[in-house]
């Protein structure tokens, strides 16, 4: 429309430059976000890294439980499920220190999200005192926690076996873990039960029809699993080519995709709320695609966010 009225040299470039720096435009316009290839966490031994998350709240089941504490060994793929009445720091630590650790050993590190149970001072202090390093996944990036895949499987199994009686999930939980720990994983070539507890592979055939096979010792299984895990990860990385994205550096200004919620009391609909908040300054990078943000004015830390939730901010003229 403007070019119908006026014209000057480099007009398109100048107009684009001005609009690009409009504060309101930057926060309301949909834009292509940075979306680098997701780099999987590849541990080299069991108990090197456990991924932990909470599934729920669910319909109250046997014993008054409403949550499932989901734990996965990122190397062996072994899963452990603990039904909880309340998803508190105390109840989760009780399960870890009184059952999981005595049975499976103390891990080197635990990966969890930013839930209040895991940001509590007691969580980190207790685990650190046992030599366990606490690692946080990116905010609003469930894919960065390997336990997310297990959560989807729990949902699928619950829909299959509990669709007629939703409160039955706690009765089936032990069967779910047995099933998942018996499946052979393509990424390792073994089932979790073979690598974690040195148990034999489960066969679906009757005993009379089973074909005898040579069973490797546990140490050899772990070596083969490690080689398979790393080689398959390398092949996946070659197949996946993400769209190039600008690198962000400490000190850069960015906008953060907001998480709007409609409110009847405030007479607000999320359809009309701003898509982005900020600006924030990048404090530091904690990985190639995750950054810690701080408020520009107060310098207060906002949290760690994956690059897919960020876009560069341009100061208004």
From TrEMBL:
InterPro entries: Integrase_cat-core, Integrase_H2C2, Retrovirus_Pol_polyprotein, RNaseH-like_sf, RNaseH_sf. It comes from the Eukaryota. Its EC number is 2.7.7.49. Residues 39-200 form the Integrase catalytic domain. One of its GO terms (molecular function) is RNA-directed DNA polymerase activity. SUPFAM superfamilies: Ribonuclease H-like. This is RNA-directed DNA polymerase. The lineage of its organism: Eukaryota, Metazoa, Ecdysozoa, Arthropoda, Hexapoda.
